[in-house]
């Protein structure tokens, strides 16, 4: 199992807005290369996003399903990338003043990935999720700053 943390200069609602937009998934999830479809009720429990993993022309079409969701606070996903396998990813959001600590916990749950020795599996997930959180922060903080600028501009005019 891998646990990664990052504090972002945005509120939990700002982070949730990005997580709740399934079309943004490949912008912040390492390995996801494109979206094919997003269920209309995403991120409701049982809803799915349909993505591809890999690099063209070697793409694997699969999906990710919401197992649990507490808007603005947490989401638990069943992530799939067969034939590699599937996993469980929990993303938790906690207030730290005007900032948010985002914690990602990931573990392989099925397929060949569960056979990888824990030190190697944990290290590879740690590296991948460090980059995932970095991308999420760029997206959330950039979006947050752009909205702030737009609101200030509207008030000035």
Outline the structure in words.
- The chain has 157 residues and is an alpha+beta fold.
- It is built from three helices and seven strands.
- The chain has a seven-stranded antiparallel β-sheet with strand order 1-7-6-5-4-3-2.
- Strand 5 and strand 6 (85-96) form a beta hairpin.
- It starts with a strand and ends with a helix.
- The mean pLDDT is 89.
Describe what is shown at a glance.
With 157 residues, this protein is α+β, with helices and mostly antiparallel strands. It is built from 3 helices and 7 strands, in the order βααββββββα. A hairpin with a 2-residue loop joins β6 and β7 (99-110).
The helical percent reads 25-40%
Q: What pattern of helices and strands is seen along the backbone?
A: EHHEEEEEEH
In the predicted model, the low-confidence regions spanning at least 5 consecutive residues are none
Which structural category do the helix and sheet elements fall into? alpha+beta
The oligomeric status of these chains comes to: single chain
The averaged pLDDT comes out at 89
Q: Give the number of helices.
A: 3
Name the overall outline: globular
Beta-strand residue fraction: 35-45%
Count every beta strand, where a strand is a DSSP E run of 2 or more residues: 7
Head-to-tail CA distance between termini: 51 Å
Radius of gyration, CA atoms, in whole angstroms: 16 Å
Largest sheet: 7 strands, antiparallel
């Amino acid at each position: 199992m891998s646990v990664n943390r990052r504090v972002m200069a945005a509120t939990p609602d700002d982070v949730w807005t990005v997580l709740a937009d399934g079309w943004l998934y490949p912008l912040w999830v390492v390995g996801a290369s494109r979206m094919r479809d997003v269920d209309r009720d995403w991120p409701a429990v049982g809803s799915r996003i349909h993505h591809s993993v890999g690099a063209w022309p070697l793409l694997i079409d699969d999906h990710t399903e919401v197992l649990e969701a507490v808007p603005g606070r947490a989401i638990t996903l069943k992530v799939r990338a067969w034939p590699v396998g599937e996993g469980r990813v929990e993303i938790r959001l906690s207030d730290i003043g005007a900032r948010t600590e985002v914690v990602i916990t990931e573990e392989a749950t099925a397929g060949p990935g569960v056979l990888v020795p824990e030190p190697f599996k944990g290290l590879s997930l740690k590296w991948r999720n460090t980059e995932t959180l970095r991308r999420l922060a760029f997206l959330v903080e950039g979006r947050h700053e752009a909205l702030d600028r737009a609101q200030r501009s509207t008030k000035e005019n």
